[in-house]
Amino acid sequence: MKNEPGDAACKAGSVANAELIRWVDEVAAIAKPDRVHWCDGSEAERDLLMARMVEDGQFLPLNEKEYPNGFLSRSDPNDVARTEHLTFICADKKEEAGPTNNWMSPAEAETWVKPLFRGAMKGRTLYVVPYLMGPAGSPFSKVGVELTDSAYVVVNMRIMTRMGAVAMRELARLGKFVRGMHSTGDLSPDRRYILHFPARREIWSVGSGYGGNALLGKKCHSLRISSVEARDEGWLAEHMLIIGVENPAGETAYVAAAFPSACGKTNLAMMVPPEGLKGWKVWTVGDDIAWLRVGADGRLWAVNPEAGFFGIAPGTSMKTNPNAMKMVRKDSLFTNVALTADRCPWWEGFDGETPERLADWRGRLWTRGSNEKAAQPNSRFTSPLARCPSLSPSWDDPKGVPISAILFGGRRTRLVPLVTEAFDWDHGVFMGATIASETTVAQTGTVGVLRRDPMAMLPFCGYHMGDYLAHWVRMGKSIPNPPRLFRVNWFRKDASDKFLWPGFGENLRVLRWILERCAGKAAGVETPAGVVPAPGAIDVSDLPMAKGAMEELLAVRGAEWKPEADDIEKFFSTLAPRLPEVLERKRLDLLKRAGG
Ligand code: OXD
Ligand code: MN
């Protein structure tokens, strides 16, 4: 085994961390790579890896004039999404993982999964990828090290995290790191496992190169492992976007929002204010993950631990997300999108006329009118935060941003109003605990089935969901000046199955009401489900909405909430006896208010 030239400097920085060196040696002894490459995160290193991957066909360079520094990768067709059924929490007892996670004992992991790493890196390079989640020098931030045999992972991690030398420096400051061992193995779903050992802050991932399974800083570290760290240390690790909303007076307030995968988080995070709201601005801090801590001033503060976007490409257009369309034009990697004849990326929903011929996501000829999708429905772009036109000036602030409101959303075509404010913190936790959404392309399985997804954390919580909700209830008591909590639903439909709300930039009208509520200004009406905007409190007079649409969007009909409360009872019963009692009380209150 050799070390790659040029890595000495980075490794030298780690000499202080003997534990890291010992662990790298241990993994190398198991996986038997031909070479070990310590990543420094430099541009030169990235160029070297890209050149190698272009040469061996893993990446195709895109049209340099239209997409400078842009590349396309096509994955194995069996490896295109997160595989929740192959994702496990390896706690000592099944009870610690809870009923919403798959569980494997650490002993079984040693017996059944460890052997998949034996010799897995023969003929390959083991890349040591030190990464930092969160701004340098921040009390929020955490270091991880991913050992991987995938150069695709390295170049994506370089965008998604603060990778290389900066992480090594932070490691010297913090002393601790999350260990991630990753091999693409043979990419067979039969030998694919994504394992988390929360107690020892460790991740093993084998058999997949897909983002959420293989870029270990993202879901595995920043949510599954960090949700446990957050519980133990008294903070929150959440599946939330963060934005700053600036009013025409130049005041910016920050909002965090949890939505299940593929519900438009990236679009909301990069929203462009509509014509009707002149003088407003939306600033992007993050689109997927928020770490939140109580500040010295008693407010809740948040950082986005990531440094990039791993966004779903299909449906992204100048109409739905103009900032993303501008952002992906430079320094971006694409996975499983289609390719035009002049080597530009394309996907369903792309602006302009559909090209007559394309190379589809598998590289096969695709012609207009084909029944098959040209881009894989979960195809992605990976772009640096720094390329985002709406990037908040505070995105890298070590102290984070103060959060005024937290939103919980879902994809509900019926019942749930456009926006509802919680009566109090615990009621807000109840709202977050009971959000539900139709399943989407971001996870394998059936699309369109309604599933309860507490705080949008169902696939990402590293411990028992009942304990997690109890942690939320406890956190409410430790925040002297907590944010207000709201539920939103952009997806309500009318009787003829048409969306009632225009969505996209117009969602800012809802955010405006929310922030005015936080400032004690906007009018609301109490309903059985919470406080909804008073008639006229959200001005839509300049929007081409059908008559009565706004009334319907905000309607709460008590009797319709009874079956909802019953369904919630079924879900809650799966979390008993660890469900905090106050949430069952909130359910009974809802039932009473609904007249049940
Ligand atoms: C994501 C997801 O990729 O939630 O962000 O699946
Ligand atoms: Mn996500």
Describe this structure in words.
With 596 residues, this protein is of the alpha/beta class. It has three domains: 2-38 and 78-233, 3-Layer(aba) Sandwich (Phosphoenolpyruvate Carboxykinase, domain 1); 238-304 and 395-593, Phosphoenolpyruvate Carboxykinase, domain 3, CATH 3.90.228.20; 309-381, Phosphoenolpyruvate Carboxykinase, domain 2 (Beta Complex), CATH 2.170.8. The chain contains 17 helices and 32 strands. The strands form seven sheets. Strands 1, 2, 5, 6, 7, 8, 9, 10, 11 and 12 form a ten-stranded mixed β-sheet that branches. Strands 13, 14, 15, 16, 17, 18, 26, 27 and 30 form a nine-stranded mixed β-sheet that branches. Strand 21 and strand 22 (345-346) form a beta hairpin. Helix 12 packs antiparallel against helix 13 (465-478). The termini are far apart. The model has no long low-confidence stretch (mean pLDDT 95). The structure holds oxalic acid and manganese (II) ion. Oxalic acid binds next to loops.
